[in-house]
Design goal:
The chain is of the alpha+beta class. Helices cover about 50% and strands about 15% of the residues. The protein is built from three helices and three strands, in the order E-E-E-H-H-H. The longest helix is centred in the C-terminal third of the chain and has 18 residues.
């Protein structure tokens, strides 16, 4: 989901989403949609599609880049910038 990673557990009989950052709460698709709407994103089914390993790394590096920028760790920020460029291609 935009702004927040969640996990999807899926079987032939059910799909449930898990929010690892909020105590492992279980969420339905409707609850995910409601959360996205409250955060101003609206809702699209694509928001709940699985992320590729590359996309996960890109998001982690982007988050770290923002943290290093905020904390003025410029060497680390620049290192992450190089990773972001390579992952984006």
């Amino acid at each position: 989901m935009p702004g927040h990673f969640i996990l999807r557990l899926q079987s032939p009989t059910f799909t449930i989403f898990v929010d690892p950052f909020n105590g492992g709460n279980f969420l339905t698709q409707a609850e995910c949609a409601e959360r996205l709407k409250r955060c101003g994103y609206g809702f699209e089914n694509d928001f709940l599609t699985p992320a590729t390993p590359r996309r996960i790394l890109l998001r982690i590096c982007s988050n770290l880049h923002q943290i290093y920028q905020k904390e003025k760790h410029l060497g680390e920020r620049d290192r992450l910038q190089k990773y972001l460029i390579h992952l984006a291609n």
